[in-house]
Amino acid sequence: MANIAIFASGTGTNARKIIEYFKENANIHVALVVSNKATAPVLDMADAFGIEKMVISRQRFYETEELLQALKQRDINFIVLAGFLWLIPEYLVRAYDKRMVNIHPALLPKYGGKGMYGMHVHRAVKAAGEAVSGITIHYVDERYDEGSAIFQASCPISPDDEPEDIARKVQQLEHQHFARVIEKLAGQLEENNTIE
User: Fold this and answer.
1) Is residue 29 annotated as part of the catalytic site, yes or no?
2) C-alpha distances in angstroms, 4 versus 38, 128, 158, 163?
3) For the packed helices 118-127 and 163-187, what is the interaxial angle rounded to 10 degrees?
4) Which of 94, 163, 90 is nearest to 133 (CA)?
């Protein structure tokens, strides 16, 4: 059984799609939603689906390894970042090497890095006059958006598209592909592959 923790900072539209996708899956279970914001709507969504939730403080996240212990206690063996805005500390990257993924709303390595999230990305894509944008699903390392790419999908952009239009097109790709890629990766986990 692959037990997934979803880390999210906001509304959780991707988190919702992932939870719905795995609701009836016997081998992959969304066991925990973690947020760095106590008021994040994704926490209400976790309640609605009966999924355990956890709010973490910056101090606890960066200066202790309490979160790692909490993940171990819950047998979490795969982490999904779905709109989680904090840089992941080294202890978590090390513990979940090749078992932690992020989705970025652009075709990396373009339009990645610190501060490049949400509408900031789509405005930059529009300002550059790009004809194509898309998504990148990648492994997480200690730097923003620099982990190895796993999957990309693209969509055409017309000159008339505003950043909000680009956002809608990219979100469709996120919802179409993210859970399927997670399924493939989490499905490959060996049953005895536990976190040390």
Assistant:
1) no
2) 20, 37, 37, 32
3) 120
4) 163
pLDDT digits (tens, 9 = 90+) for 10-29: 999 999 999 999 999 999 99
Q: Which H/E stretch holds residue 58? A: helix 58-63
Please name every residue paired with 151 in a beta bridge, in sequence order, or none if there are none: 137
Domain total in the chain: 1
Number of residues that make up the chain: 196
Is residue 195 assigned to a domain?
A: no
The catalytic residue among 104, 122, 138, 177 is 104
| Parent domain of 182 | 2-187
For residue range 45-76, what is the model confidence (pLDDT) as tens digits?
A: 999 999 999 999 999 999 999 999 999 999 99
Note whether residue 192 is domain-resident: no
Cβ–Cβ < 8 Å for 73, 43: no
Domain annotation covers residue 194: no
Helix (H, G, I), strand (E, B) or coil at 68: helix
In angstroms and rounded to an integer, the radius of gyration of the C-alpha atoms of the chain is: 16
Residue 159 makes CB contacts below 8 A (sequence gap 6+) with 129
**Per-residue pLDDT tens digits for 132-155:** 999 999 999 999 999 999 999 999
Residue 86: give its domain's CATH number: 3.40.50.170
- The sign of the CA dihedral 53, 143, 125, 155 is negative
The pLDDT of residue 178: 97
Domain-located, residue 37: yes
